[in-house]
Each structure stands twice: as structure tokens, then as C-alpha cells.
Amino acid sequence: MLRAISRLHQKIARQRKDWHYNEAHRLVRNCDVLAIEDLKIRNMKRRNKPKKVDGVFVANGQASKSGINKSWSDNGVANFVQILSQVAQKYGTRIIKVNPRGTSQYCSSCLNRVSKTLSERWHYCDVCTLSCDRDYNSAVLIKKLAVGSSQDKKLPSKRKFALVEKNPSHERDGSVN
Ligand SMILES: [Zn+2]
User: Fold this and answer.
1) Counted domains in the chain
2) 137 shares a domain with 66
3) Would residue 47 count as lying in a domain?
4) Å from CA of 1 to ligand 1 middle
5) Ligand 1 mean position to 64 CA, how many Å?
6) 113 & 158 share domain
7) Domain carrying residue 112
């Protein structure tokens, strides 16, 4: 029984790896430049500190975070980014990593701040009426940040989130931070 479960886990891991390579090749084939968020996945997976009020332990948000941690681990985002970097390097496709700060909280069309909680999956901007999936909005914004088109007059400098990494680590040694 245990051996069967172990084999199943290996099979799933293999299939996931295959899928990662296929997707990485598809992206590299179709794009000259790839823009991704420079996510510190290890930080995202860190457990919340226990919270005490008047000597009594209270909810610290770990229960809801555990769900996120699990899906991050399951999706193997870190593995995918590493594979994508390898494939991109092999074919000379540039990867630009952008600071993820604020990428879900600003409108990709007009750069107005549109605050959302993690459970809010839809982006709607009061200013320019852009209405779309939040991930799509983030993706467009990440692309804009990567090509530097956000560095226009509409974005005050105090909103420090146009930080395109100048020397991505994968260009030096193939590793991903
Ligand atoms: Zn807008």
C-alpha cells in the first residue's frame, strides 16, 4: 500500500515536472521577453508568529495562510520559475523580474490604487472603469512595469514599485532567488 502511494506521488511529481517544462517551452517559444514577479516564496511560506493578547493566545491568521502555503507548495511555483529560467537562458530569452509590491493593488490601465483583499478576485477601477479578473490586471501591470512604461507622470515616485531588476540572477548563474 505504502509503495503504491509512493509510486503515485512519484508519478504526480513527474507529470508536474513535464507540465512545467512544456509550459516553459511554450512561453519561451512565444515571447521575446518574459516578465515575472520576483516573489520571495520562502518568505510567503513562513509561519505567522503566535499572537498573545493579555497572556492569551489569539488567532494569528495562520489558519487562512496555511491554505495559501499549501497551494503554493502544490503548484510548485518555485520549481516552475527555476525551470522557466533554465529554458529561457538556453534559448536566450530575457526574463525581467519585477517587484511584486502593489501589483494586485493598482489599476493596470490608469494606475489608480484599487485596494483588494486576497479573496476579492475581480478588479474594478472607479476612475477608468476597467473591469477584469484581478490576475489579468496584475499580469498587464507586471508587463508594464517590466517594460518601464509605468514610469510616466501618472505614477508618483513615492509609490516605489517600478523596480525592475537590472541583473536578474538567472543571467549570472542560472539560479533563482
Ligand atoms: Zn483604472
Assistant:
1) 2
2) no
3) no
4) 55
5) 30
6) yes
7) 99-170
Using alpha carbons, select from 165, 99, 108 the residue that is nearest to residue 135.
Answer: 108
Q: How many angstroms is it from 130 CA to the middle of ligand 1?
A: 6
- 127, 110 in Cβ contact below 8 A? yes
Amino acid (one-letter) located at 61: G
Reduced 3-state DSSP string for 17-42:
HHHHHHHHHHHHHHCCEEEEECCCHH
Q: Which three cell numbers stand for residue 136?
A: 489579468
Residues 87, 31: Cα–Cα separation, whole Å: 12
What is the distance in A from the centroid of ligand 1 to the CA of 154?
Answer: 11
Structure confidence by residue, pLDDT tens digits, 142-162: 999 998 844 544 444 434 343
151 and 80 share one domain: no
Query: Each residue of 16-40: pLDDT tens digit?
Result: 999 999 999 999 999 988 999 987 7
Instruction: Report the distance separating Cα 21 and Cα 86, nearest Å.
Output: 10
pTM over 0.70: no
Between the CA of 142 and the centroid of ligand 1 the distance, in Å, is: 15
- Output the average pLDDT for the chain: 79
